[in-house]
Amino acid sequence: MKYHQIDRDLFIKNRAKFMAQMKPKSVAVFNSNDIYPVSADSTLPFAQHRDIFYLSGVDQEESILLLFPDAPYEHQREMLFLKETSEHIAIWEGEKLTKERAFEVTGIRTVYWLQEFEKVLFEMMTHAETIYINTNEHYRATVETETREARFVKWWKDKYPAHAVAKSNPILQRLRSVKETEELDLIQKACNITELGFRRLLPFVKPNVTEYEIEAELIHEFIRNRSRGFAYTPIIASGNNANVLHYIENNQQCKAGDLILLDVAAEYANYSSDMTRTIPVSGRYTKRQKEVYNAVLNVKNEATKMLTTGTLWKQYHIEVGKLMTSELLGLGLIDKADVQNEKPEWPAYKKYFMHGTSHHMGLDTHDYGILTEPMQANMVFTVEPGIYIPAEGFGIRLEDNIIVQESGEPFNMMRNIPIEVEEIEELMNA
What we know:
It catalyses: Release of any N-terminal amino acid, including proline, that is linked to proline, even from a dipeptide or tripeptide. Its EC number is 3.4.11.9. Keywords: Aminopeptidase, Hydrolase, Manganese, Metal-binding, Protease. GO terms for molecular function: manganese ion binding; metalloaminopeptidase activity. Helix 1 crosses helix 2, helix 8 packs across helix 9 and helix 10 runs antiparallel to helix 11 (313-331). The protein is globular. The protein has 2 domains: 8-176, Creatine Amidinohydrolase, Chain A, domain 1 (3-Layer(aba) Sandwich); 181-429, Creatine Amidinohydrolase, CATH 3.90.230.10. The strands form 6 sheets. It has a 6-stranded mixed beta sheet, sandwiched between helices. A 3-stranded antiparallel beta sheet has the order 9-10-13, with helices on one face. Strands 14-17-18 form a 3-stranded antiparallel beta sheet, with helices on one face. By secondary structure, the chain is α+β, with helices and mostly antiparallel strands. It contains 13 helices and 18 strands. Strand 2 (37-39) and strand 3 form a beta hairpin. It has helices at 9-19, 50-56, 87-93, 99-106, 117-125, 148-159, 169-177, 181-201, 211-223, 287-305, 313-331, 336-340, 421-428; strands spanning 26-31, 37-39, 42-43, 64-67, 78-82, 110-113, 130-133, 164-167, 235-238, 259-263, 267-268, 271-272, 276-280, 380-383, 386-389, 394-397, 400-403, 411-412.
């Protein structure tokens, strides 16, 4: 891994929090992701399942974590199963975790090779009454590929039909949404790397540069600062491309006078950042572009103030909608009749701002969190309003990452990344 080793105390704490919420006499199993084939002998780059990483820090394939708080013996309460390494594997694939190294990374003392898993699980199941399975229940999830976790669930149900089933996901949704200090530091590191990429970019952008050249500048800066790369597929959308919310082609030339919407951010140690900025190709915003830009910035700044403990996500978005409505009226994009005649399910502002303002962020860009429950301290949210005007050939979105505080103002993790019109223009023309 490119990142510095994370203190194993984080993973020890995370496991303790999870096990404290397990039912008596229950086992929980977590599997790593597969390495997915492309064709022939090619594979996609490995990306670890965030849940096993959250609970162990293990960042390699073919790994299994087994938790059994009520196991008969103490050494059986946390067990890790790894693909057996060898000199041959080290030569061809690189170093894998040894049992000793696994303890250094995870704090788990009981480490087996993977081939022992079924035998050890059988012994544990003779003492257990319930097993926690780890299904993907994120509100945005649309999974068509059968994962390693899904294959395990099928196998387990056939092998142990008499045991009760419980779900890991509701526990993890709550635990992962509230960040430990170490996690906030890792997200901040990802934000800082994103800042370096953005500052590199500003003097680079000129008329006729291509979107993919911008992408190349960013990935260069991310990787040279120990990031694996983009936290998500980058959106580098010039001109009217910005009005396609998930534009990822990044293959067009940026024309003089246009804006570029950049929804781009680095990851670090599997933790995400999530930034959007909108900059002028020619280094200066037009009067109209500046008007719309500052309207979006006003909404972002006011929406940020609402990310406080006890806030309900649904009500928050209603209030943000009111802010956006006011700004759109001021810009002449909607009028009072539009507001008076709007439908409750599709307010007038949705014509120009059709997506949500905030989502949880952490190990996943759209991270775990139960949206029907009040916001808590140390949750991290994006705040990302936008105004999209196809008829005028541009769209503007601005996005920062915010920590909900126990009291006082929310903390902006991207406070040092240029966002004001004047600062962006100055840096682009330095």
